[in-house]
Amino acid sequence: MPKLRVGVLFGGRSGEHEVSLLSAASVLKAIDRKKYEVIPIGITKGGHWVTSSHAERLLSGEAAPSTLRAGDPAATAPAAVLARGESVIVPPVPAKNKTGSLVPFETQGNPAHHALNLDVVFPVLHGTFGEDGTIQGLFELAGIAYVGSGVLGSATGMDKDVMKRLFASAKLPITKHVTFLRNEWVKSPKKIVTRVEAALKYPVFVKPANLGSSVGISKAHDRKELSPAIELAASFDRKIVIEQGVGGKRGKARELEVAVLGNDSPSASVVGEVVPIKEFYDYEAKYLSEGSDLIIPARLTRQQTKQVQQMAIEAFKACDCSGLARVDFLLDPGKSARIYLNEINTLPGFTSISMYPKLWAASGVAYPDLIDRLIQLALERQTEKDRTSYSR
Length: 392
What we know:
Oligomer: single chain
Helix content: 25-40%
Number of domains: 3
Number of strands: 16
């Protein structure tokens, strides 16, 4: 029986490019080569697709990116190697005889410029252009199976404003928040500050609506810190979300996380807790600094655990997700101990020491088995989509 051809796609144009390299290194190291024919596919920061040979070089060196410590650094080479690869101008197409809406065009000359025939794509892309529905749209047009949520689930899971609207519609508890556009801030900054202070109490969290790995997020304790925080968030997205800090002066909220796996009938992992070394679990705490603790399972009552797991599944369904997602929560440190749904991440960090794989390992699903399960879920979802008629 021929092996399934699996394309592992990594890199990308987002601010989470380096994190993607680390996740891909772990996947390529753990995936069962006896079961799958693995095709590494890299995307440079400039948006160029590179050949598998160049992509493999990125992940087979001995040196790690000097600024990151997470994942499998011994298996990750400098990102500069990726930038030197050759551009691939034809997207992946199904290996079997299927016809998608995206028909590859012919190229001449360089043999590296050809379509990659694949059975399934495993996108290990984080952030903009990777988990926001854009690359998923390409796979849909090509008619190829891929790991993770579809266009809608990816887009809603990426946009923190739309995500919160869906959570509210599903009657899931969320924190108070204010959303506005970058142009509104540029035109009337004083008006925005007044609006924020009328709706929320300090401290507040200022976030770009569309980004992950805590890139561009700041905690503002007062008006003096608010404007610089908004400027930072606005440099990463046209839409800014400001959230009420949970706990306030009573103390920091407890940060809980749950991994969800499945398609139409998803299941939830054990609950984990992050105790960041910094004031909150920002990019530096996640990838640059030692000392943050990951507690698995989280120290919760049985009732709290069940509540968080059920909310995670409801959030997954509310955003029309599939395959995988990590759902994050905030537990009020006060007497109420109220649990708030913070956000959903449809393509979470996937290094062997990232929270998503660790939560499933603690739930009895080892890292290589998790990769297998995600590939099977991608194929199952494609089979279900193939039942749909697109013409009369």
